[in-house]
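Example for tutorial group B:
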């Protein structure tokens, strides 16, 4: 979707509104009808005034009054029915939209979730779904009513005194002229900037809340979170600029739209010449009474435009995600022959026109071999691991699992082969049993228990009130980073995939946890092909082979002893590591 392309909102919504078009049209018709009916009482008021000024019967006035009340009630009832119809349609469209988006999400490369952040994706989808719901449930009936009202009003305005009627239209034209000063395209762009500023500010706020302990412990202020502060400053400067931009048109619009009656008073002085008859007083009073209706209708039209722009922006954000190419699933049904992994001259960049992150990486990992990826931060270790699991496709070169190019292995089969244990383990807000069982839904409680035992989780289970049935995150049940990681290891043990990719945690708060996580990892990797992304060199010395990755290529490889003898990058890193460990102990 082009940034400034004219968007037909209904056309975008159409595919999601398949079975509810009838109810939606009915809702819009009822809203328009309700708007027409709502105008008739104003005619009754005119008649009541006429009877009153001409000294007519009270009974006639009272029956006209009742007619006005009943018609107002009918109009309200019609509007409620219209809302009911549009709400039904809105719920269906929203549900269709969510489910089709979810289906689409499942086809996207896994790496997208890492890159965009699941929070951001959720906000975009929820934002679009609720903007669509508000638009269909409220804006569409309001728009239908707002379109019907001016037609009825025009009739009402000109049938009694066409001159006064035309005078009422002057401020309306002036009000709209003021609004038009700020072009729709500019407002649309501002709306987009507003959403961007809001998105950045909320994701920075999440980061800030996550790091609040550091802020508190070190007595820092919000200034220490520069990006968060910048996001707030950007948002605030955006608000001020936008307010200033809109001020002249808004002030002009509101002044004219609320001053219609003042025009009538002024016009009365000019137009009424000679004797003031009861008919003149009648028409004049009538116009004073009816003009607020025009104000309300115009405001509805003006604000419905704003909501439509919010919706357009939300739909644009969604299309940004929908434009991401899904990873093509393998056409052939080739299955890996063993548990070996080969990276053949792999080159990879995250985005076009950026530098290669991997610049010709070749690795040869045999079935059952335990290897470690080490090296300076940013060297490409996590990227290489993500490519093996096909979070993204390689830019050049190829990756083979069990002798088969991973592009030819069906996604499901590849996922069965590999278990990935991340550093920041995510657990769902459900019981520990269900969290572990995600790996193999048909596993029995006993099997889950065994996996938990192997992953050294029994101390966690024993201290929780409902054992493995305790819901994580509920009633203040929170687990530490190390505990969470052990539960994810239990999940991987239950899955029992032959290839394990472990992103080792960088830091542990307490040594007990560290020892338990180490033991759990050893249990998990027994007899498996293991790729460990190691951040602390103490854990790699036993690896069959260590690859030192630097700037996207293998700088050195070999066993710990071989690499120490080489006296290269690894030996230097290891020396530094040992020295810093000693320093920590002496301290
Ligand atoms: P390591 O795991 O060795 O620390 P990474 O594989 O995480 O290294 O990163 C390698 C390079 O790729 C770094 O320069 C990093 O900034 C970049 N990078 C990592 N993830 C992304 C991403 N999602 N989008 C763009 N660049 C990324």
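The residue assignment follows.
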């Amino acid at each position: 979707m082009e940034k400034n392309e004219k968007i037909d909102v209904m056309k975008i919504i159409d595919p999601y509104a398949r079975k509810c078009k009838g109810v939606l049209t009915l809702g819009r018709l009822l809203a328009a009808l309700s708007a027409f009916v709502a105008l008739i009482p104003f005619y009754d008021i005119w008649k009541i005034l006429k009877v009153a000024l001409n000294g007519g019967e009270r009974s006639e006035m009272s029956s006209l009054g009742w007619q006005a009340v009943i018609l107002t009630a009918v109009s309200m009832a019609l509007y409620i029915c219209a809302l009911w119809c549009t709400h039904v349609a809105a719920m269906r469209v929203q549900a269709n939209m969510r489910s089709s988006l979810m289906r689409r999400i499942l086809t996207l490369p896994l790496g997208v979730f890492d890159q965009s952040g699941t929070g951001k994706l959720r906000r975009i989808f929820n934002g679009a779904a609720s903007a669509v719901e508000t638009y269909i449930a409220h804006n569409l009936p309001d728009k239908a009513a707002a379109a019907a009202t001016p037609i009825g009003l025009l009739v009402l305005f000109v049938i009694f005194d066409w001159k006064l009627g035309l005078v009422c239209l002057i401020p309306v034209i002036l009000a709209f002229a003021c609004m038009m000063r700020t072009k729709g395209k500019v407002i649309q762009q501002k709306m987009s900037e507003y959403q961007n500023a809001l998105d950045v500010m909320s994701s920075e706020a999440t980061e800030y809340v996550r790091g609040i302990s550091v802020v508190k412990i070190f007595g820092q202020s919000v200034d220490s979170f520069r990006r968060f502060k910048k996001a707030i400053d950007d948002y605030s400067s955006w608000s001020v600029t936008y307010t200033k931009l809109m001020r002249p048109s808004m002030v002009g619009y509101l002044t004219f739209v609320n001053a219609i009656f003042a025009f009538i008073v002024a016009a009365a002085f000019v137009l009424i010449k000679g004797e003031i008859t009861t008919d003149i007083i009648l028409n004049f009073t009538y116009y004073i009474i009816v003009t607020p209706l025009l104000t309300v209708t115009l405001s509805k039209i003006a604000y419905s435009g704003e909501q439509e722009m919010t919706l357009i922006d939300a739909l644009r954000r969604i299309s940004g995600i929908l434009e991401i190419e899904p990873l093509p699933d393998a056409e052939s049904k080739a299955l890996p022959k063993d548990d070996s992994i080969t990276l053949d001259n792999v080159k990879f960049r995250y985005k076009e026109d950026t530098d290669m992150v991997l610049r010709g990486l070749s690795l040869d990992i045999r079935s059952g071999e335990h290897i470690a990826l080490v090296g300076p931060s940013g060297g490409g270790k996590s990227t290489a691991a993500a490519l093996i699991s096909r979070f993204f496709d390689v830019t050049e070169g190829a990756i083979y699992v069990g002798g088969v190019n991973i592009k030819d292995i069906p996604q499901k089969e590849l996922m069965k082969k590999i278990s990935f244990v991340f550093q920041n383990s995510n657990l769902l807000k459900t019981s520990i049993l269900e969290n572990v069982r995600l790996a193999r839904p048909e596993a029995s409680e006993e099997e889950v228990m065994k996996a938990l035992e192997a992953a050294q989780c029994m101390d966690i289970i024993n201290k929780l009130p409902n054992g493995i049935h305790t819901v994580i995150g509920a009633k203040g049940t929170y687990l530490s980073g190390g505990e969470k990681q052990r539960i994810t290891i239990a999940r991987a043990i239950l899955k029992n995939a032959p290839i394990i990719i472990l992103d080792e945690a960088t830091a542990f708060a307490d040594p007990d946890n560290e020892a338990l996580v180490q033991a759990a990892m050893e249990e998990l990797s027994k007899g498996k092909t293991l790729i460990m992304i190691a951040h602390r060199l103490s854990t790699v010395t036993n690896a069959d082979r260590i690859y030192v990755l630097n700037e996207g290529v293998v700088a050195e490889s070999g066993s710990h002893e071989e690499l120490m003898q080489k006296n290269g990058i690894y030996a230097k890193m290891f020396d530094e590591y040992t020295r810093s460990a000693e320093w920590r102990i002496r301290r």
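The mean pLDDT is 82. Compare this with the pattern of hydrophobic and polar residues in the output above.
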